[in-house]
Amino acid sequence: MTAANWMAFKSGTDIRGTAVGDESREDYLSERAVSAITAAYAAWLCDNLNLTMENMLVSVGHDSRLSAGRLKNTVIGTLRSLGVSVLDCGMSSTPAMFMTTVSLKCSGAVQITASHHPADRNGLKFFTRVGGLNAADITDILTRAQNIAVPEPGDPEDAEKCDFMNTYASSLREMICKGVNAVDYMRPLRGLKIAVDAGNGVGGFYASKVLEPLGADVSASRFLEPDGNFPNHSPNPENAQAMASIRDAVIESGADFGVIFDTDVDRAACVGKGGVVFDRNRLVALASAIALENNEGATIVTDSITSDGLTEFIRSLSGTHLRYRRGYKNVIDKQIELNESGVNCPLAIETSGHAAFRENYYLDDGAYLVTKIIIKMAELAKANKPLESLITGLREPAEEAESRFAITCGDFRAYGEKIIADLRAFAEGVDGWETAPENFEGVRISTDEQKGGGWFLLRVSVHDPVLVFNCESDIPGGTDIMLRDIGVFLSKYPCIDKNKS
C-alpha cells in the first residue's frame, strides 16, 4: 500500500474504513491492515508511555457491528503475538473502554466502532489514560503502519475475559443514587417510566443494567438488542427518523423521559414527558444549565453551529459561551486548554450530542450526560417542575437549515478554504451582512431582515470533501433567502457541485 492508501483510513481522530466486502476498496480494513495498525499503536504506546511490550496492558472492546468479531480477533491476536497483555472486554461502549485506563490501569484501550456510520463500515478508536488520541497521533500510527513488521497473529482466545460493562453500569447507578438521594436510596427511580432507544447498538445496557435496577419502568424501551444490520433506524441522535422513534416511544407509552444513544454510546439526546425533544441547541442549553448551577462565570465550549439564542441563554445564567469548531475532539481539547490556563470550563458539548464534563475526565460520554439529566429531572420533579422548565429562557429560531455542497477537485480542503477567504472579503461589501468578529471556523455572518433575518455559517467539513452551510432565521422564509444568496456566490466556482450533496 502507498502512503496515500494508508491515510485513506484516517478520519479525524479515528481509524475508519470498509469492513464488510473485499480488498477492491481502497479503505478496506483487511486483517493485514488491521494487524499493521494495531502493531503501530502498540509501538506508539511504547514510545509515548515509556513502556515495553511485555509490561503493557491493553483492553479491547467493540460495538454491535457485523465485522466486530473479525476485527477484534485480529487486534487481540496481534497484540498477544507482540507479548502485550490483553483484556477482552467484549461488547462495550466507547466511554467504558476509556474508563478501563482509569479503573483497571490499562496502558491503552482499543474500541472497535464506526459510530453511527453504515453497517459495512468499522474502525478503531485508541485511548490512553489522558484521553483519546489526536489527529497527529493517528497520522503517526498510520505512518508507522506502512513499514512495520506485521507479526503472525496469535490466538485471540489467549486474552483475559473482562466484563467491564457491569462495573461501568454500577458506577452510573451509584451516581444516580447519590445524586437523587431518595428516601428509598437504592430505588430512586421507582415510579418513573423511562424509554431507551438503543438503535440496536450497545446502549441497551442503560435500560437493563442502570435504570431498571434502580426501580424505573423501562417497558417502553425499543431496539435494545444488538444487531449490526441496524434494521430499525440509524443509531444516530442527529437522524430525524431516530429522534422520531424515541419521541413516539415516549408519547405512545406516556413515559416521563426518553433516551436515545448512538451505536457506541458516546453521544445521546433525550425527550421529555409529552414528547418535548432535547437535541441540538436544546440539548446544549440543558447541559449548560446543569453545568452552570452554582458556577457563575464559567465558560461553556460548543461547536460552531450553535445559535445566537443559545449564546444569550448561557449569558443569562452568568456564563460565557465560547463558540469554537466542529469536531468533538476540537471542543474537548479547547476545554482542556482553557482549564489548564486557569479558565473555569466545566463543559464542552457539540450539537451532535457529544458532551464532556470536566469532572468525568473530559470524556464525551452519552450515558454520563443522560445520567446527569435524569438526576436533575428527579430534583425538579420534587418541586413539580418539568425538565423543560430548565431552558424556558432559550430563544429559538423560526427556521433552520443545512446544505452540503460537494467539492469535486483533488485538494478539497485548500479549495474550500480559498472559497471561505473569498466569502469573508466579499461580505464586507454586502449591505445587510455583518461578519462575526469572533469566529474559529469558516465564515459566520449575521443578516438583516432583507437578507434573511438571522445568521449563516459556511465551513469546510471536518472529514468530507464538502462545504457545509448552516443557517437560522427569526422570520418565515429567511433561510430560503440565505440559501439563495450563498448559491449565487458559489455559482462562480467550477469545482462546487451546484446540486449539493
What is the secondary structure topology, with strand pairs?
Elements: H1 3-7, E1 10-11, E2 14-18, H2 31-49, E3 57-62, H3 68-81, E4 85-91, H4 94-103, E5 108-112, E6 121-128, E7 131-132, H5 135-147, E8 160-161, H6 164-180, E9 194-197, H7 205-211, H8 240-253, E10 257-261, E11 268-272, E12 277-278, H9 280-291, E13 299-302, H10 308-316, E14 320-323, H11 328-340, E15 347-349, E16 355-357, E17 363-364, H12 366-382, E18 399-406, H13 412-427, E19 433-435, E20 443-447, E21 454-460, E22 466-473, H14 478-490
Written description of the protein model:
This protein is of the alpha/beta class. The chain folds into 4 domains: 160 residues, Alpha-D-Glucose-1,6-Bisphosphate, Chain A, domain 3 (3-Layer(aba) Sandwich), CATH 3.40.120; 113 residues, 3-Layer(aba) Sandwich (Alpha-D-Glucose-1,6-Bisphosphate, Chain A, domain 3), CATH 3.40.120; 118 residues, Alpha-D-Glucose-1,6-Bisphosphate, Chain A, domain 3 (3-Layer(aba) Sandwich), CATH 3.40.120.10; 92 residues, 2-Layer Sandwich (TATA-Binding Protein), CATH 3.30.310.50. Helix content is 36%, strand content 20%. It has 14 helices and 22 strands. The strands form 4 sheets. Strands 1, 2, 3, 4, 5, 6, 7 and 8 form an 8-stranded mixed beta sheet that branches. A 5-stranded mixed beta sheet has the order 14-13-15-16-17, with helices on both faces. Helix 2 crosses helix 3, helix 2 packs across helix 5 and helix 6 packs parallel to helix 12. The mean pLDDT is 96.
